[in-house]
Design goal:
alpha+beta, 7 strands, Heat Shock Protein 90, single chain
């Protein structure tokens, strides 16, 4: 009974560490309730063979298979992730639980007191529990560094299968002595007294943990490389748009001045009221194409003017109060990426709102030692924000959502931060960038 309790404890601790570090399906309270109920469920699942009257090797293997399925179902219940990702995490939790158990056996063999672990002494059992908790702390320390990013990583069916196969393979190799006894005698026991077996189990389980952890890091590295590539392409596209807009604005401004002079000549030669009214309409129309923004930052003026024209085309009112000198310390590419993504997202969201609600408010100013960018826009459907990241509403979730990630990337690259807030149909982006010391 004691051994079954500690086997369950090893699996439960490993499982709960990964649950804590993952997106949880329910609140902390309900997750805690499920976790408490999970322990007796996992404990009795190990004895399902005996409870059904199936003894010997068949009962042992059946109970193990059933307990592992129960462990997966409990993780699936508590973790809000795809089935493939939960299976991947299950592989890691199970192999780490096996490693914890093999470490206990190894320590008993090392000190020559293996039989002591099977005793009923309270102190001995507390020491075993402490070792399991220390192993769980080790898993937490190993995973917490990458857990936040891993939440957003897509796990394919192949990566899921590799994790599960590693777990099964490690279990079979680590318990080969027991399996051989089952095949020979039909009884799950081992009378091998060689310490080599205990050392080998630790090594095999350690290799299993290392392989799954390496696979996890490989997935993370691939994800970050892809994310960096997409964000770089996004920044370059924003910069290209800026260059195109700048050239277009220069051409339009020249045309504006030429036409304005032509109109003045026509007005001076013809006093017809009707034609004067017509010419006045032409001048008003030309005003839409004049570079309106005048923030003191030529690059920012170009971006704001091009986005203002987009707003006018969609019937969006854009109110801007901007001090261009607040962004003079960052590169043109970073500024284009930052402002381009902020306003593109705002325009895309506001475009879907009723015509009388299409409003964007943009403020760029210096406050104390920071350049502060604040953009507010009305949105008909309030976006979901989780861990300061927006959940994309587009179907291709794997390749979208990089606009907001690019904002965070550029802000952090320049030593600042980006945050998002959604409330009462208003979405707000706030960027804080430290100003250079004078």
């Amino acid at each position: 009974m004691i051994d079954s309790i500690f086997t369950t404890a090893a699996e439960w601790i490993s499982m709960m560490v990964l649950v804590i570090l993952s997106h949880r399906r329910y609140s902390n309270l309900w997750t805690g309730v499920i976790a408490v109920c999970a322990f007796p469920i996992m404990y009795y699942s190990h004895d399902i063979g005996m409870m059904l009257g199936i003894v010997g090797g068949a009962g042992w293997m059946g109970s193990m298979a059933f307990s592992l399925i129960v462990m997966y179902l409990l993780m699936r219940l508590m973790i809000k992730a795809s089935r493939k990702k939960v299976w991947f995490l299950w592989g890691l939790a199970f192999v780490f639980a096996e490693l914890s158990g093999s470490v206990i056996t190894f320590l008993g063999s090392f000190f020559g007191k293996e039989s002591v672990w099977t005793g009923q002494s309270l102190w001995i059992n507390l020491i075993r529990l402490a070792i399991y908790l220390l192993m769980g702390a080790g898993l937490y320390f190993m995973e917490h560094r990458i857990a936040k990013e891993f939440r957003h990583i897509h796990v394919s069916i192949w990566e899921c299968l590799i994790s599960v196969l590693i777990a099964i393979t490690v279990f079979v190799i680590g318990n080969l002595d027991v399996i051989v006894m089952i095949l020979q005698n039909g009884v799950p026991s081992s009378n091998a007294e060689s310490n080599v077996i205990d050392y080998t189990k630790v090594l095999v389980n350690l290799c299993g943990v290392a392989m799954i952890y390496s696979l996890q890091n490989s997935l993370l590295r691939h994800h970050l490389e892809k994310e960096t590539t997409l964000m770089t392409a996004l920044m370059e596209r924003q910069h290209d748009q800026y260059e195109f807009s700048r050239e277009s604005m220069e051409l339009i401004n020249r045309k504006y001045h030429d036409l304005k002079h032509q109109i003045q000549v026509i007005e001076s030669e013809n006093d017809d009221a009707k034609k004067g009214e017509y010419l006045q309409e032409i001048k008003q129309g030309l005003d839409h194409f004049y570079a309106k923004a005048n923030t003191g930052n030529a690059a920012l003026d170009t971006v704001l003017t091009s986005k203002q024209l987009m707003c006018e085309a969609d019937g969006i009112t854009m109110i801007t109060v901007a001090d261009g000198s607040a962004l003079s310390h960052i590169s043109v590419m970073d500024m284009c990426s930052l402002m381009g993504n902020i306003l593109d997202n705002a325009i895309e969201s506001t475009r879907k709102a009723p015509e009388d609600e299409r409003l964007i408010r943009l403020t760029i100013a210096k406050k104390q030692k920071f350049a502060v960018i604040r953009c507010e826009n009305y949105c008909e459907k309030v976006p979901v924000i989780k861990d300061n990241q927006l959940k994309t509403t587009k179907q291709d979730k794997e390749n979208h959502g990089y606009g907001t990630k690019s904002l965070v990337y550029v802000a952090e690259k320049n030593g600042g931060s980006a945050s998002f807030n959604a409330q009462d149909h208003w979405f707000t982006v706030s960027i804080f960038l430290p100003l250079p010391s004078e």
